[in-house]
Specification:
CATH architecture of the largest domain: 3-Layer(aba) Sandwich
Number of strands: 12
Radius of gyration: 26 Å
Shape: elongated
Strand content: 15-25%
Number of domains: 3
Order of helices and strands: HHHHEHEHEHEEHEHEHEHEHEHEE
Number of helices: 13
Distance between the termini: 77 Å
Strand order of the largest sheet: 2-1-3-4-5-11
CATH topology of the largest domain: Rossmann fold
CATH class of the largest domain: Alpha Beta
Largest sheet: 6 strands, parallel
């Protein structure tokens, strides 16, 4: 197979009968080179098919000008909004994003963390998978002085800045809202309690029940996955309880939407028979009928905050945090799935 030779600045210099140094400066729009020469060099480079070798340049400078973005899933409004926030901050910089996807697997997360490390990313923004229990795969970053910013799903005992919301407060507010609507028997559907976000939301749920002298029982807490099959199983389980719950706080909007559909198909009325509060403010919450009460937290702001923390460290900004927790606001959005007539 014929592979066309890569054009270099020396080929352009030979073509124009000028020095390679002049070509290099002209391609970088250096003001020491006349505008006429710059235009001539850039036009010739374009016609010859020259591609800037930023990889070699970055190696010489010991920088890759890339930021790793390691996440547990990509099919999520929240994750895409975080990515949009990161891009708002990085768009006008020289940094590119390299994405790694763990598919909720600790083993894939470890492999992706190692891969991004060997790709020589200058910094990393990460959110942990469901079953990550050991964060030692981030230690090479620490040893090399590569900044890491975690968001949403974090381990508070791990190196790096963590950007989160107050999940315990959000869980408390969601459950208190259901109590305020007259619910007496409130269940909770959540995911892996190894993750801070779900463990803290459970704490908020329990606190609201205890404050209101309402019973907390383990069979009212379902720890499950968030796919359609798992969500249907969770909904069916709650319908079989005696007495059946009259309110449910669910820590994921897609799961909540599937539960609502399942309960309605079984003849239950939402919110009269079961009042529902979700979490994330995903688009599906506005489509489901009745529309879903949920906890909103701004993924774009989380992404912007995480990216700014990382870039401040990379750019040596004085006082840039290298550790600790940054807590952003969340809010309860009340819709039809939980509001009962007084």
């Amino acid at each position: 197979m014929n592979t066309k030779k890569e054009i270099t600045i020396y080929d352009i210099a030979n073509k124009l009968q000028i020095s390679a140094a002049t070509v290099s400066r002209a391609l970088k729009n250096h003001t020491a080179i006349s505008e006429n020469t710059r235009k001539k060099v850039q036009e010739t480079a374009r016609k010859m098919g020259y591609r800037s070798n930023s990889f070699a340049s970055n190696l010489r400078r010991q920088k890759s000008n890339t930021i790793g973005f390691l996440v547990h899933e990509l099919h999520s409004n929240f994750i895409t909004s975080v990515l949009a926030g990161i891009e708002k901050i990085t768009a006008n910089t020289d940094f590119d994003l390299v994405i790694g996807h763990s598919s909720e697997s600790a083993q894939k997360e470890i492999a992706n963390a190692e891969n991004l490390f060997h790709k020589r990313v200058d910094g990393l923004i990460a959110s942990l998978s469901f079953d990550t229990t050991d964060t030692s795969h981030f230690e090479p970053y620490v040893e090399k002085g590569i900044p890491v910013v975690f968001f949403d799903r974090v381990d508070e005992n791990t190196y790096g800045v963590k950007v989160v919301i107050d999940n315990a407060k959000a869980g408390y507010e969601a459950t208190m809202h259901l109590i305020g609507q007259g619910c007496k028997n409130i269940a909770h559907i959540t995911a892996s309690l190894k993750r801070n976000v779900y463990a803290d939301r459970l704490k908020g749920y329990k606190k609201a029940l205890i404050e209101n002298k309402m019973p907390y029982t383990k069979n009212h807490v379902i720890v499950t996955g968030y796919n359609e099959h798992d969500s249907i199983k969770a909904a069916e389980h709650l319908m079989q309880l005696k007495p059946r719950p009259d309110g449910v706080f669910i820590t994921n909007d897609f799961c909540a939407a599937v539960c609502i559909k399942t309960w309605k198909a079984a003849g239950l009325r939402i919110p009269e028979d079961i009042a529902v509060v979700g979490f994330n403010n995903d688009a599906i919450g506005k489509i489901v009928e009745p529309s879903l009460t949920t906890i909103n937290y701004n993924g774009v702001e989380i992404g912007k905050t995480a990216a700014k923390c990382l870039l401040d460290q990379l750019n040596g900004v004085q006082g840039a945090p290298k550790d600790g927790v940054i807590v952003l606001k969340s809010e309860l959005i009340v819709r039809g799935s939980s509001v009962r007539g007084k």
